[in-house]
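Researcher: Next entry in the queue.
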Amino acid sequence: MCVFCQRILREARVWASTSHENVIPLLGYWTNFRSDNPFPALVSPWCNDSTLLDHVVKMEKKICVCNRLELVSDADFF
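Model: Structure for this entry, 78 residues:
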């Protein structure tokens, strides 16, 4: 197995073992072995808000400063 694939597998294991309200679950992985570029893709649920930054900007007036800092801190931890 290539080094890149080993790293992706390690990240997938960490992600799959993570349980946090601000981290979406890992549903699985997919690899297109028929392609010239058989790199794996990690699969997660679709999120309409796109990114953490998009979500915070959208919810700016509804999320207090303490909760914003907590979101950023949690994201930085993972």
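Model: The first helix runs from residue 3 to 17.
Researcher: Noted, moving on.
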